[in-house]
Amino acid sequence: MNKNLNPNKIAVIGAGGVGATTAYALMVQGIGSEIVLIDVNKDKAEGEAMDLRHGASFVNPVDIYAGDYSDLADAKLIIITAGAAQKPGETRLDLIKKNTGIFKNIVSSITEYNKDGILLVVTNPVDILTYLTYRLSNFPANRVIGSGTVLDSSRFRSLLSKNCGVAASNVHGYIIGEHGDSEVPVWSLTNIAGTPISQYCPICSKACGGDDLEQISSQVKNAAYEIIEKKGATFYAVALAVARIARSILRDENAVLTVSSLMESYYGIEDISLSLPTIINSNGIDRVLELPLSKKEEKAFKESAAHLKENFEQLEV
């Protein structure tokens, strides 16, 4: 690690719903001893920082404050949540053009002050913006990460947990590919206590048949749209997902998480960012894992990549 970086400092760019809630999750879980909030609306960033600071006596010691880009010069981890929000009826990919321009400014401002930290992109469409950030920043691929399908995988486990009557922490399964409409549930490797889901379901107290599994896939894919329709935005679960990634980085955990990163000939895919189970530690990405997918799943994963590349090629980068 660069000796000029503070290994426990996190910068959060964007103090909206996701950014502020992420800072809260980091604070409550004791991840990072210094957190700086940066937003184009300085009053908003200051207000959020003040609100968080007032709870300092209830958590581990942490210095939370509002700042500007110069304050992220020594940050180990830079989390980007800023950008246009997804509106009811919009897909994540509808946000591409809006957020591309925003990201060009953000990334250039980051690299002016910090070239050695780890970038964690949360803004949607996260896979395309992660790849864009990689291209714009000239950071090595291991230090440009997207939150990817970490949240989707948690939604997947949560719904299976409810369906099968077992704790979500004991459900093991992944969503890979795009964080969006072309995401791929890896049913062939999903298991509970080592028992493949196809074998577990018939003996489950709440038997989950094939139709239920398809319904779960659909619910995972459409969860954000439903939440946005009902309350206008999603931020609690995504903030917890981001905090989980941050913890693995700052505590050098070697955790396996389905983050989005540059594809380097994984399943023959290159030049786009997608999610696969990935070992995450203090260096960022340690290793991307190629799972033994079924032929159907591998085909769907490649189609997800083609879908994103087609959309990225429409941008003026």
Helix amount = 40-55%
Largest sheet: 6 strands, parallel
Number of domains: 2
Rg, nearest Å: 19 Å
GO cellular component, one term: cytoplasm
Pathway: Fermentation; pyruvate fermentation to lactate; (S)-lactate from pyruvate: step 1/1
Main location: cytoplasm
Protein name: L-lactate dehydrogenase
Structure, described:
The protein contains nine helices and 16 strands. It has 317 residues and is of the alpha/beta class. The chain folds into two domains: 6-146, Rossmann fold (3-Layer(aba) Sandwich); 149-314, Lactate dehydrogenase/glycoside hydrolase, family 4, C-terminal (L-2-Hydroxyisocaproate Dehydrogenase, Chain A, domain 2, Alpha-Beta Complex), CATH 3.90.110. The strands form five sheets. It has a six-stranded parallel beta sheet with strand order 3-2-1-4-5-6, with helices on both faces. Strands 7-10-11 form a three-stranded antiparallel beta sheet. The chain has a three-stranded antiparallel beta sheet with strand order 12-15-16. Strand 13 and strand 14 form a beta hairpin. Helix 3 (96-113) runs parallel beside helix 4 (126-137) and helix 5 packs across helix 7. The longest helix is centred in the C-terminal third of the chain and has 22 residues, at 210-231. The mean pLDDT is 92.
